[in-house]
Write a structure and sequence with these properties.
The protein has 246 residues and is α/β, with parallel strands linked by helices. 24% of the residues lie in helices and 25% in strands. The protein has four helices and twelve strands; from the N terminus they run αβββββαβββββαβαβ. The longest helix is centred in the first third of the chain and has 38 residues, at 2-39.
Length: 246
Amino acid sequence: MNRTYLLKSGLFLLAAAILLIAYYGGNTVQESSSSSSELIPPNEEKHDMATLLYQGHGSFRLTTAEGKVIYVDPYVGEGYDAPADLILVTHQHSDHNQLHLIASRNPGCELISEKEALAGGKHQTIDLGYVKVEAVAAANKNHDPAECVGYILTFSDGLQLYAAGDTSKTAQMETFAARKLDYALLCCDGIYNMDIAEASECAALIGAKHSIPIHMAPGELFKRERAERFAAPSRLIVAAAEEITL
């Protein structure tokens, strides 16, 4: 009788202990989850590294580590849904300035075109905090240097990206190697701008860690055959609609 009673009592206490552990353990998890959600709002994305979405032709979208969205020479492709914080236009040819494609702009969105970049007849530098935009020379027989620019972008983490715009080799490119650029995006269509051979020469001259061929042929988002002929030792081929981490 006593043994049976003790056994039943022991089982009752064990069951009660299991229930208490489950109850308080569950509350601890919930409280921990609540604390985490207070620290990181559920609708706020975290961005640790910058990315580049190549939209095709001369168009691409950058997203900084802070989550700022930068469009460069909007014209074709997909990926214009993210609200813009900065829009860069290298010149006013119709395959570089289709601003209507960008679905929306965040409050305070900046538009920098060659007009702002060449204010006062000089290449300007505009520091927005999350990125520094430095206008540089862009020119050839089809592109007046007084109406066209390229941009060197320096992000808050120090990463540097050169967007050449429409150009051929310029004297200023000779100074870029000393800057140890991380990325250079170079046109190579050979009709309105330098061809693949000259673009390869410029890539070697600039010496960026990664050289990406773009603007390969009129009316084409991307041509792999031409991209593979781009002979830069630092060549990085990015297809249209492909996104990479910088």
